[in-house]
Amino acid sequence: CNQLDFLQAYGWQTISPDDLIKGNVLPDKSVLITFDDGYADNFAAVEALTQRRLKASWYIVTQDIGKQSSWRDHQAPTLPMLSETQMLEMQSEGMTIGSHTQSHCRLTEQSSERIIMELRDSKATLSRILQRPVNSFAYPYGLYDASIRTCAKACGYEVAFTTRSGFGLVNGDTLQVRRISIMADDTLNRFARKLTFAS
Question: Which residues contact 44 (CB under 8 A, 6 or more apart)?
């Protein structure tokens, strides 16, 4: 909450992926807040954001909606995931819901057929739940290459988030949006430096 209070106090405005698609001139102090995976404990952030008239975007692993996280790696604990009801409430509060694939797989290690399935089917699942088109995506682990980017475009995604550090887009491409990692234990000084220097 301290980080959100900082954004509000210093005049930062939150934007959505659609603002990138439209190509509008963005405010100088604009920030796009994203959460990956779809853990249920992230739901508490919705109230904190709406109380401050801020918004954010969530990227969901669709095979685990309403269940426990099922992908396995050394950094990922098994935790409860957001439900369909929670995602609908989030959307009603102005939050954006996007895809993070079906299974949180490393796309660069998959066949072309599996990549298309992960991108297409997760998009279809979310569109059914939300009753609206889903056009934004976050690459699991930040792993992608030119062919995966092309697949994302072919599946109808217009915005995709990488883990490449920095501001804005890679080569002006909305399917390669840079991000800055913000941690819960970042001090406000560190948080401010990240906003200023993207590092």
Answer: none
Q: How far is CA 196 from CA 46, 164, 171, 184, in A?
A: 25, 16, 21, 18
The alpha helices in the chain, defined as continuous H runs, are 2-9, 17-22, 44-51, 84-92, 112-130, 146-154, 188-197
Helix (H, G, I), strand (E, B) or coil at 101: coil
The string of DSSP codes covering 165-191 is ESSSEETTEEEEEEE----TT--HHHH
Paired strand residues for 60: 37, 99
Check if the beta carbon of residue 31 is closer than 8 Å to that of residue 6. no
State the 10-residue block means of pLDDT for the chain, 199 residues long: 91 93 83 96 96 96 96 82 98 97 97 97 98 97 96 97 93 94 90 86
Q: What is the pTM of this model?
A: 0.94
Which distant-in-sequence residues (6+ apart) come within 8 Å of 149 by Cβ? Answer: 160, 173, 175, 176
Q: How far apart are CA 108 and CA 96, in angstroms?
A: 26
| Phi (first) and psi of residue 22, to 5 degrees | -70, -20
